């Protein structure tokens, strides 16, 4: 997105500022240098790009603003670690739309740089900063989610820490840009007629410029993207494993029991595979009874919760059946949505990052093909397009949490836990296959389940 001022008149054939000739031709005297000049390659098609970026601007700002306000003001979202991260990502998207999109579009459309010395040095930082902040936020999200699902009893780092860290690290990462940007004041070079006009470009004559550009591309985009994709796959595998080993799940709250036995929450376990017999709890004894009939009636499990001694009793033996929390399907749904959000961001911004990385090393900045202007604008628009998508996914996640909370009498769906009035002491029965005793012990309230 950063333009280098490559075809402005002060450049001579050797790529240096021509300071010897300050005379003006009659054509230059008649030409209004302060008039905005479109790039010649975009003169015929620039309205299309203005319209495309305008649609993104007008749609994404209301959507992101609404979802940020809705999330902040919704009680169920305030305890969700996932929505904390995604809210920060939405705020960063608003920053892109309000402060970066308009000036970036103008800079890419115009041939003459009219924004002054301050924006010359600030513009590259302004353009790259929110991208780095977003990738750091998503990296923190997938890492925190993986740790929360893999080690549910461990207390995670507060999401606020990741939020502050993403902004600070992103800001620090773009500070070196100020040393690699050069601004040439045309008023001092060509006279008062060029007041407030200049040339802004990346000074690649400095020894560390290429090293810095390479480092930012690899360390702050490519490598984090690969790590994010790896953690997404690993977390999905973990959730799939938890689901496969769970044949039955018994929760303390009857509403959670009712939801567990709803086949719509477990699409892979349909009625033709498993038969559920739900005996509703007696209003006096509060006993819960669940019968599970696997395919072929290889075995049957019956769990009974006795209110008197808080035991879960097995009436028949079984092999290798573990219990997972009733939020497993919500976690899997969230995982799919998070994967979509993150992959849309990576795939949207990857092309323009590769383009900007390549253009500094492969293209001659003084013989710049005109078709690259169109490609630059198109790829930049593709990156901003991702800001229109995230609010819809966030709204679906927020809606799920509100509905789950209402059906479970206000229990936090991100930290649903199975607990008993006292530590459960389940009966043990010998497994016919192993001869060892199997037991099912509901988790106490020592730690939350990440959602």
UniProtKB/TrEMBL annotation:
The chain crosses the membrane at residues 44-69, 81-101, 113-139, 160-184, 212-233, 338-359, 379-398. It is a multi-pass membrane protein. Residues 415-425, 436-451 have a biased composition (Polar residues). Residues 1-29, 409-451 are annotated as: Disordered. One of its GO terms (molecular function) is neuropeptide receptor activity. Its main location: membrane. CDD domains: 7tm_classA_rhodopsin-like. It comes from the Eukaryota. The keyword Membrane applies. Residues 63-394 form the G-protein coupled receptors family 1 profile domain. The keyword Transmembrane helix applies. It is found in: Membrane. Keywords: G-protein coupled receptor, Membrane, Receptor, Transducer, Transmembrane, Transmembrane helix. PANTHER family: G-PROTEIN COUPLED RECEPTOR, G-PROTEIN COUPLED RECEPTOR 165. This is G-protein coupled receptors family 1 profile domain-containing protein. It comes from Hypsibius exemplaris.
